[in-house]
Specification:
Helices cover 51% and strands 10% of the residues. Helix 11 (324-338) crosses helix 12 (353-365) and helix 13 (401-417) packs across helix 14. It has 4 domains: 4-87, Gyrase A, domain 2 (2-Layer Sandwich); 165-258, no CATH class; 272-380, Rossmann fold (3-Layer(aba) Sandwich); 401-579, Isoleucyl-tRNA Synthetase, Domain 1, CATH 1.10.730.10. Strands 1-2-4-3 form a 4-stranded antiparallel beta sheet. Strands 6-5-10-11 form a 4-stranded parallel beta sheet, with helices on both faces. It has a 3-stranded antiparallel beta sheet with strand order 7-8-9. It is globular and about 90 Å long. The protein contains 20 helices and 13 strands.
Length: 588
C-alpha cells in the first residue's frame, strides 16, 4: 500500500488541480510545528511565482476546495501562504486498519527485487574478536536484515582474513611449541589427523607471541615468510594444519558472532579467491589496464576531476606478492561470476575511505563489474571511551569483544536483580537478552559514520534513548495483553477503532509512518533511522499509556479497540527490533 505522505499528497494535489494549479504543488510533509498542526503543505508558496499570485490567495482557494475532504479534518491557510493540516480520525483509522491487515504492514515491495551482497565482519582467523569488530558486525547485520525485510535477496559474507603472513606466523608459532607434530615432518606420507592438535585458546596465545617475536627476531620473521610461501604454494603439511587453524577459528567466531545475533550466509575468506588471482592479473595485463611502475604492477585510477592525489591501485608488489587490493578485486570477480549481484556493500572502518575509492575505481575501469552493478562502501566511526579516545581496557589494552559482552551482561543482571523478584535462571536469561539490546541499540542509534562514546551506565539504563527502554515498552505492552487475557479477553479478531483522545491519535500517527521509515532505511542503508523511529514510537505509546484507561475501560468494545492498537504497536516494535538483530523477553 502507498505511504501515508503519498496518500495525503494525492488528496492535496487533487485540490490544487481543482483550483487550476499543478497537482505537484500538493506535496505534504510532517509538520515542523506540531503545536499548530499535524501535517503541512507549502505548495502555495512554490506556486506564487509560477502563477503570478500571492501565495495566501492560492492557499485560501485550496483550503476552500478541501472543506468537504474526508481525509483532512482541518485545512487552514496561514500567512504568507502555508497550509496547516489536521487528519481526520476516521481516515487515519482506515489507513491503519489496512496496514494491520496487510503482509509486512502494507510495505510496498519491489517489483524486481535486487540481489545485494554485504561484506562485513572482516575477522582474522587465529585472533580473538575485539571491540573494534562490534560496529562492523552489528551495522552489517542490521543492513542485511533491513534490506531483506524490504523485499531484496541479501547475502551476508564474513570475508575472513585467512591468508598472508599472519598464517605463516601462526604456523611457525605452532612448530616452535609442538615441533614433533606430523605436519612439520617432510617425510610423512600418511593421512593427517582429522582433529586439530590445539585449541582456540592456544591459537589466541600463539599469534600475538609469534607476531611480537617476528618484530624482534629477523630470523624468525624470515621463517614465517617462508612458511607463508610454502602454504600458498600447496605445501601438504602446512596446508593441513592451516585447515585446522581455519576450522577451529571459524567455530569460535560463529559462537562469538552468534552471541550478537550476527549470522553470515557465507564464511568465505581471502584464501577462497587465490585461484583466481593469476587469471585476473593476466586479464589486466592483456587488456592494457595494468602496467609496471617501480617494479610493481599497478592500475592508474586517477580521474581528471580529482582535486586530491589519487595513487594507483597496486595489484602485485615488486616481488610478485599479492595485497589486500588483489584479494578484494579477485573477490569482486568471483562474486560477479557466481552470484551476479546488483549491489555489493562493504562495511568497514571509515579510515579505509581512500582504499575503497581505489578498489572500486579499479574494478570499474577494468570491467570486473557490470556498469549497472552498484559498489557501496559504508565507513563507520570509532567506538570511544569516556576520554574520547578509542575504547580500551582499564589497563590500556584493546578489549576483547567477549569481555565487553560479558561486562554488559553482568551490569544488566545487577540492574534486573535490583528490586525485582525473579528466579536466578530467568534473571540471567533476561539480563543476557536485554544486554544485547543495550549494546546493539547503543551502537546503531548513532549514524554509522560518526564516532560515539561507549557509556555502559547510559546504554543499560531503562530510561532515555536506549535498547532497554525500548524493550521495557514492549514488555509493558505484553504485560497488559496478558492481563487482558486473564480477564477473559481474546487477542484474536480485534478491530481498531477511531481515536478518541490526542494521545491515542498521536500513537496511531506514529504507527502509519512505519512503511515510509522502513523503505527509507533500506534505500539509505541507515539502521539509525529504525532506532529513531522506535524511540519516537515508544515515547508515543508510553504517553498514551499514562493518559488512557486501558484495562479499566468499562466499554468492552472500546477496550477491545485499545487492545487491538496495543497488538499492532507491539508487532511493529518487535518487527523493528528484529531487523536490528535483538529481541524482547516476556518479562523484565
Amino acid at each position: 500500500m502507498k505511504k501515508i505522505l503519498d496518500l495525503l499528497s494525492e488528496e492535496m494535489g487533487k485540490a490544487f488541480e481543482v483550483c487550476g494549479y499543478d497537482a505537484a504543488l500538493g506535496r505534504v510533509s510532517i509538520s515542523n510545528r506540531p503545536d499548530l498542526c499535524e501535517y503541512q503543505c507549502n505548495g502555495a508558496m512554490a506556486g506564487a511565482k509560477q502563477y503570478h499570485k500571492a501565495p495566501i490567495m492560492i492557499a485560501n482557494e485550496v483550503a476552500e476546495a478541501l472543506k468537504e475532504s474526508k481525509v483532512f479534518k482541518e485545512v487552514t491557510a496561514v500567512a504568507p501562504g502555508f497550509l496547516n493540516l489536521k487528519l481526520s480520525e476516521e481516515y487515519l483509522l482506515n489507513v491503519l486498519s489496512e496496514m494491520a491487515a496487510a503482509p509486512k504492514f502494507g510495505l510496498e515491495l519491489p517489483a524486481q527485487p535486487r540481489k545485494i551482497m554485504i561484506d562485513y565482519g572482516g575477522a582474522n582467523v587465529a585472533k580473538p574478536l575485539h571491540v573494534g569488530h562490534l560496529r562492523s558486525a552489528v551495522i552489517g547485520e542490521s543492513i542485511k536484515r533491513i534490506c531483506r525485510y524490504a523485499g531484496n535477496e541479501v547475502i551476508g559474507d564474513a570475508h575472513l582474513g585467512d591468508w598472508g603472513l599472519q598464517m605463516g606466523l601462526v604456523i611457525m608459532g605452532l612448530q616452535e611449541k609442538y615441533p614433533d607434530l606430523v605436519y612439520f615432518d617432510d617425510s610423512y606420507e600418511g593421512e593427517y589427523p582429522t582433529e586439530a592438535p590445539f585449541t582456540i585458546s592456544e591459537l589466541e596465545e600463539i599469534y600475538p607471541a609469534a607476531s611480537a617475536k617476528s618484530k624482534a627476531d629477523p630470523e624468525f620473521k624470515a621463517k614465517a615468510m617462508e612458511a607463508t610461501f610454502k602454504l600458498q604454494n600447496g605445501e601438504r603439511g602446512y596446508y593441513a594444519i592451516w585447515k585446522h587453524i581455519l576450522n577451529v577459528s571459524v567455530e569460535d567466531l560463529k559462537k562469538n558472532y552468534g552471541s550478537l545475533n550476527v549470522e553470515f550466509d557465507l564464511w568465505k575468506g581471502e584464501s577462497d579467491v587465490q585461484y583466481l588471482i593469476p587469471e585476473m592479473v593476466e586479464y589486466m595485463k592483456e587488456g592494457g589496464y595494468a602496467h609496471i611502475s617501480e617494479g610493481a604492477l599497478v592500475v592508474d585510477v586517477k580521474e581528471e576531476t580529482d582535486t586530491k592525489e589519487m595513487p594507483p591501485c597496486m595489484i602485485l608488489k615488486s616481488d610478485g606478492a599479492s595485497l589486500y587490493n588483489t584479494t578484494d578485486l579477485a573477490t569482486i570477480m568471483e562474486r560477479m561470476r557466481v552470484y551476479h549481484p546488483d549491489e555489493i556493500i562493504y562495511v568497514t572502518d571509515k579510515r579505509q575511505d581512500l582504499y575503497f575509492q581505489q578498489v572500486f575505481r579499479c574494478a570499474r575501469k577494468t570491467g570486473l563489474v557490470e556498469p549497472e552493478t552498484k559498489l557501496r562502501w559504508i565507513g563507520f566511526g570509532t567506538m570511544n571511551g569516556s576520554d574520547g579516545k578509542p575504547f580500551k581496557t582499564r589497563e590500556g589494552g584493546v578489549m576483547r569483544l567477549e569481555n565487553l559482552i560479558r561486562e554488559t551482561k553482568d551490569e544488566m543482571y545487577r540492574k534486573i536483580r535490583e528490586g525485582r523478584e525473579m528466579p536466578e535462571e530467568e534473571a540471567r536469561r533476561t539480563a543476557d537478552q536485554v544486554a544485547m539490546s543495550a549494546l546493539i541499540y547503543g551502537d546503531l542509534s548513532n549514524q554509522a559514520s560518526k564516532d560515539y562514546v561507549f557509556d555502559l551506565e547510559r546504554f543499560t539504563s531503562f530510561e532515555g534513548d536506549t535498547g532497554p527502554y525500548i524493550l521495557y515498552t514492549i514488555v509493558r505492552i505484553k504485560s497488559i495483553l496478558a492481563k487482558y487475557k486473564e480477564q477473559g479477553g481474546t487477542l484474536e479478531g480485534l478491530k481498531l477503532q477511531t481515536a478518541t483522545s490526542d494521545a491515542e491519535k498521536q500513537l496511531m500517527m506514529q504507527l502509519v509512518q512505519f512503511n515510509a521509515m522502513m523503505q527509507n532505511a533500506a534505500e539509505e542503508v541507515a539502521p539509525h533511522k529504525v532506532c529513531a523511529y522506535i524511540y519516537d514510537l515508544a515515547n508515543s505509546f508510553n504517553h498514551f499509556y499514562h493518559e488512557t484507561r486501558i484495562l479499566g475501560e468499562e466499554n468492552a468494545e472500546k477496550k477491545a479497540g485499545l487492545i487491538a492498537l496495543l497488538i499492532l504497536t507491539r508487532d511493529i516494535l518487535e518487527t523493528c527490533i528484529d531487523v536490528l538483530a535483538f529481541s524482547a523477553p516476556e518479562k523484565m
